[in-house]
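User: Here's a chain of 734 residues. Predict its fold as tokens.
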Amino acid sequence: MTEVDIEKENAAIAKAYKQLLKVSYQTLSAADKKLIRKAFDVAVEAHKDQRRKSGEAYIFHPIAVAKIVAQEIGLDATCIAAALLHDVVEDNPDYTHDFIEETFGKTVSRIVDGLTKISSLSKETDVSTQAENFRKMLLTLNDDVRVIIIKIADRLHNMQTMDSMRADKQEKIASETLYIYAPLAHRIGLYNIKSELEDLGLKYTEPEVYQEIHNKIRESKEEQDIYIKAFSQVIVDSLDKEGLSYSIKGRPKSIYSIRRKMLKQGVSFDEVYDKFAVRIIYKSDFDNEKFLAWKIYSIVTDHFIPNPIRLRDWISSPKSTGYEALHITVMGPKGRWVEVQIRSERMNEIAEKGYAAHYKYKQGNAEDALDTWIDKLQEALESNETNAVDFVEQFKLNLYSKEIYVFSPKGDLKSLPKGATPLDFAFSIHTEIGMKTRGAKVNGKLVPLSHELQSGDQVEILTSENIRPNRNWLDYATTARARSKIKSSLKDEKKVVAEEGKEILRRKLKQLKIILDEKSINEMVLFFKLKTSLDLFYRVGIGSIDNPMLKDFASSRSNAFMSYIKSKIRKPTVVQNIDKDEITAKYDMLVFGKEEEKLDYKLSACCNPIPGDDVFGFLTINEGIKIHKKNCPNALSLQSNYAYRIMQAKWIDSSQQEFAAQITLSGIDNMGLVNNITRVISSNMHVNMKSISFQSDDGIFSGKINVIVKNSTMLKKLMENLKKINGIDKVARV
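Assistant: Prediction complete.
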């Protein structure tokens, strides 16, 4: 570069820095400016030899990120300084965390440290590694939510300046943005940034689609502006008559949301009906906000007919992101739907700035939505039961989910994701209540735990001390919190079974003259094709590895030559961490319908489902039941055209499978007999009683019990225990 170029660049850097101070949402004191200046000087020095892919000086990137943080997100001087320094430690070994802490204090250092941690996550494209990285990144939320917010700003600037990158790199970064950063921005309440991230994500993942919608919006912009102006004019006169201070803006729908509507509703660009949106922002003091919002609502609906099912009142019960507004969809001129959003200036700032505006306007008693959310999130993060991919999927569900509002018996309002069940409600109140849920009443009526709650329901949870979660609960719970608690409870229960199993195994092996030690455990894990020792003990505990199987193992072991060859052949699959704490879900059985029946089936060639995939069965005319993945390209047409031929199907782990059996009893009737029978069944840990009926006829007693058990070993054990009851003569399985 020539000296003239360098001078020009330096002037541009100085100009960018001055602009940063000018656009800050917060008012900066002299001390703030000093802190920002110091951070700027360190950043300039640290990045002086670096250039970006586009060729410009690297320092423009931290300045741009700081500008997004200051202007669009509205954070304070501490965050602006941290944004300027966000790449310093990572890119320059001369600058350590200790140096940052000494120079800028603990808070800035903690934020920069969090940002460095995120950046140093491995860059492999493997899904599970990627998901694990996201989990680690989300864990930094607990250190300081500002870390994630600055990371979102960093990502936004990278997306804005991605043109000079390789196409495959662009696609990877854009997919990652749509996968996690846009939902995060949405959840933290940064709606404008979320829209921009989504649009840019679409631009690089589906460039043709993006360009086409972009051009159509541009073509129709003039007509839209005229339409919105005509629409607004009708309301303006009435609002002025009321002496309100307000502004009206047209709001274009984002390209990404138009695309999503087109896909979801299967319509063309011209048929997306609410491309028109108008935002009315009014001035008001805090006490009159609600009153004025409804006054404006009544003025708008005096002129235009509202769509009754599209009224959204987020003023009386704000979203869990803290978003407040009144949304109405009305029929505008020329028979077009127009969405009208009514917000006070305070609500508008919260909608645009999210976190920062919350703190500016925080009322003494207002529970801060973001803090509550982070607490909830923290629980989901800490339960490491789920694997990382499941976790991220679950997390995304809870990020984007629409909300419903339900009441507790005392009338407190709780927000839950759409599709939530009484079980989710129970866990959202307290883990202990969730764990002891026996049943639920919705609007005073008993409902199953799988009942889907609707907005406005009043939910009462019935608890019992001797209840504990069972596997079916995972089919009923939808929230990450409830699912992770249930999984960890089931896991604890499995560990208890495994402990018992270990002792049983020790006894059984002793009879076969084998000592239970690390070597024999290793051999059994390989012999039974399992992954961990816990698996082995658990399966012995529930009886799915029984005496004949252990005898087979003993005889294979006695053939020393064979086992030597086998161990040589199998060497590569030796279980590295045999003591790992997992009970493998060996998805090896497909079951159909609510009854979970086993039927004959074929796997379809169009999507090649494999065990563990989400699948459904389709009843063909000539080939019986064919299995398709839920996201199979043909799934949509099959489900819409032949809904009556669709069968629910799911893969299950054979060791988790439960079977129904019926036992008949007969004997001599005596006092307390029924009580003794039920006590024996309920004390048998792995047996679940479905139904029971007894009758007594002239002193002779007969009964039928339907139970759910994991396998025949358990059933035999139960029947033996029932036979021991005084008065019981016969116990038989039907």
